[in-house]
Structure formats: structure tokens, C-alpha cells
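Worked Example 4.2. Read the sequence first, then its C-alpha cells.
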Amino acid sequence: MDNLLVQLPALIGVTLGVVGTLATTMVTDAARWRRERFYDACLQYTRALRRYSQLIAGMTAGHRPGATTPPVDLDAGLARLTGEELDRAVTDAWEELCLLADAGTVDAARRMRVAAHRLEVFARAGDGAEFDLDGWDAQALLLRRARDDFYAAARSRMGVRRLSTSSSLIHRDGRPGTRG
């Protein structure tokens, strides 16, 4: 009995250490899982919206002098816009983001989607209508800024420092090779 009493503090210490280690590991793993799932959701959302906006940019490439986006046939582009695959990719990514993100990130994601959707109006105008290049440039700039805001919100949520430049391959004023 005396041996048990002598060893009891050590046994209690080991037991508390094991319980503490398990609890810490569980909390750390859960936080890492949430962070990774959030990162994946943000990445899926931005990729889906990029495919969507690249399709729209391709549909309007023939109307935009100096466009770097490969042209997409208007009828084929409209078929892809009305098809389920692209819409499902954006919607699925949106749903996952809404489940995992904070309100600020979801709001920024919504603004990015709205800006991309406003570009779709230019693509749907068709070949017969006069193309509003200034309107396109202004809306494309809003999309780039909305994407920057989304990235800033997501980076903040993940504890990553804010970018000191635009995330766009095209500079902020909307034209390749210019500074903004």
C-alpha cells in the first residue's frame, strides 16, 4: 500500500499529461482541418469564378482590342453559360464557402460573383449590338477589385498578411502592362 501511495503522484501526473496531450492534439487537428477546408473552399470558389469570367472574357474578346483571352464562339459560349456544369461548379463552391467562411469573407465572395455576373451582360449582348468597351473595362476593374477584396478577407481569416499589390495579372487600371 505504501508503494501505491508513493507512486500515486507520478501516476496522476502521467494520466494528466496523456489527457492534456490528447486534448491539445484534438483541438489542434480540428483547427487545422477547419483551416484546410476553408482554404480549399476559397480556392474552389475562386477557380470556379475564374472559369466563368474567362468564358465571358473569351466571348467578348473579339470586341476588345488587345484582349489576351482566347476568343470563344458566341453560340458555344452561350451554351456553356446556360449549361449546368459551369453553374453547378460555381454554386457548389459557393455552398461550401458559405458553410465554412465568416460573414466578411462570404460578403466579399458575393460581391465578386455579382461583379462577374455583370460582365455576363456584355457577353449576352451578342454580335449585333454595339459593344460598350468603356463599360466593360469599368466592370472588369470592379471584378478585379472585388477579387482582391475577397482574397484580403480570406487571407485575414487564415492569419496571412494582406497582399501589397493586386492579385490580377492585369494591373489595377485595367490594361496589361500599365501601373495602377
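Now turn to a second chain, presented in exactly the same format:
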Amino acid sequence: MLVYVDTSALGRILLNHADRPALEDHLDEVLERGDRLISSDLLDIELARLCVRMDLDPVDVERVCEDVHFMGILPEVVESAKDIKQTLKSLDAIHLGTALLLADEAEGEEAVEQVVTYDKRMGQVAEELGFEVVSPGRR
């Protein structure tokens, strides 16, 4: 199975948010069971910009993303994002468009089934689209 991670999740690790331990435990469990973490190239861009805004070391982005496989923002991703009918911010639509493409075009271990996000609206839409949504440590 593929587990899609968005910026609201991995940004918590960079910012040492209170949810960080629970999130890191969840991501470690995903990897230990042989599943893979995946995201859009958008994640790398958003985390780099977060480092600039918060004066963080960009090397930390590489560390946080070392186990994440990235997918480009392909024309198919753009079309998938545009086809989402629910109200959603543009960058979140790209994240979910990527997850949808990987869910629709893959089978079994290569399909995205879970989305890790702390963005409330993105989580709601992801659930409506059929994904399991996980926000470790959120109360």
C-alpha cells in the first residue's frame, strides 16, 4: 500500500509540533510493515518555502523527506485535480489529484489507500473521495 503524506503532516516534523512524536511513530509503522510513503513534488516545494519563512535549515527537508517517494505534477495530475468537485484550495487539490491518480491507476500494494494530513478540509474531501484519513496525535 502507498500512504500519501501532505505538507501539513511533514511540516509538523520540521516545526517540532506537539503532534510530531505520534506522527513519526505512525510513519515508522508504515515503513516497518513494508508500505511506502508517497507525495507530490509539491511537498518538496512547500517545505522548502516553509524553511525560508521560518528560517529553518533546508537540510532538514532532505532528512524529513528521505523515505518519501515523489511523483511529478504530470498533466494527468492536473486533470485529476481539476476534476475534484468539492471546494478545495488549489495546492490541496494537486495533492489529492496526485493521490487519486495513484489510487485509480494502481492496484494492491501500489495503490494509495491512506492520506496523512492535518488540514481539516483536505481530510474531509479525502474521506469523501474514499481514502482513509489519518492525523496521528490530533485530539
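Notes for the reader: Strands lie at 2-5, 36-40, 68-71, 112-116, 132-134. The two ends are 26 Å apart (CA to CA).
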